[in-house]
Amino acid sequence: MAPEVRIMANAREILEKLIGFPSVVGSANAPIVSYIRDYFVALGAHVSELPGPEGNRSNLFVSMGPRDRAGIILSGHTDVVPIEGQPWTSPAFALRQGGDRLYGRGTSDMKGFLAAAMAVAAGVNAEKLRRPLRFEFSYDEEAGCRGVPHMIEAIPSICALPASCIVGEPSQMIPILAHKGKAAVKFTVEGTAGHSSRPDRGLNAIHGLSTLLAKAVAQSDLLKHGQQNELFLPSYSTLQVGVIEGGLSLNVIPQFASFDVEVRAIPGAEPYSLLEPIFKAFPELEKVGLKVKADRLSEYPGMELPEDSDLATLMTRATGRNPIRAVSYGTEAGLFAKTGIPSIICGPGNVDRAHKVDEYILLSELNECCSVLDRVASDLAA
């Protein structure tokens, strides 16, 4: 069997095993981490398991080749979104093939990339690498990139800072150079409960929340006319309220009310700063006795890789495809870029298939990813 054919066959086998782990976001991930760790240990790689503060989840960082030199990270997350409420036609955590399609939760987002990266690693002769090939497997990306910051913080204690990072989120193997940053916050107002017939004896939390909500809506409209970047659709930073909660009954003055808001900021704009008009309204509510708090739910910065950068040139050559300049969703790439590691997005699958019933990846996409990553690994040995 030719080496490239063997890599592709191994990738399919590895993907079947990865899909078999129900590594749902927010849950313990020891089984899938142990499988990946043992796989790389058997290859003779240097493996660092990095437990997170949650106590039941870990990141995994793997290095092949000289650890004192800069190299490339192949980056992906092990967690997947839940399947509850989705009427799958076959078990979601068992890989099923139908023609060129491989079905299973996480096939596109993003265990297909993990499988390809692991298969390629088996064909790498670490002693011949002039620059190292590294792998990172993070947790809780689907909860707002909560796991990877702990790993990025640990990298300097493990090896030299990598020169670049390829984040394998589904892009149909088309390199993506930029994405927006994001911040999500829950705003909660606490008042005083009471009977609705005596509003003079209570403090209505929903009424107070409406003041903050009005500020959010006004800021959303203002952003449309603010800083622009024509690479993105839409070309401006956005703000939306996605969840509102509050009240027990119509005849009860509500004691609590809250809303969840997210901002997606074009590169150069700090996501949390776009929420400032909401924070500035706090004193108005506190003056009448209401309590207000803000809980950060998730965050990651935007990123923008120059089209003429070494990494963009490498991935254009390796894929044979011109890059997409920008997308409006976000990834862990922004966190690597903020640390000073130039990053790009490129992986098999399609984001439009992610998180859906009967999620799938094309076998041809998986094979193409193997070929591209094999070229990247060969470049490190040149």
UniProtKB/TrEMBL annotation:
Entries under InterPro entries matching the protein: AcOrn-deacetyl, Bact_exopeptidase_dim_dom, Peptidase_M20, Peptidase_M20_dimer, Peptidase_M20A
The keyword Hydrolase appears for this protein: yes
One Pfam assignment: Peptidase_M20
SUPFAM superfamilies, per database record: Bacterial exopeptidase dimerisation domain, Zn-dependent exopeptidases
Broadest EC class assigned to this enzyme: hydrolase
Limits of the Peptidase M20 dimerisation domain: 178-281
PANTHER family: ACETYLORNITHINE DEACETYLASE, N-ACETYL-L-CITRULLINE DEACETYLASE
Name of protein: Acetylornithine deacetylase
Species in which this protein is naturally found: Rhizobium mesoamericanum STM3625
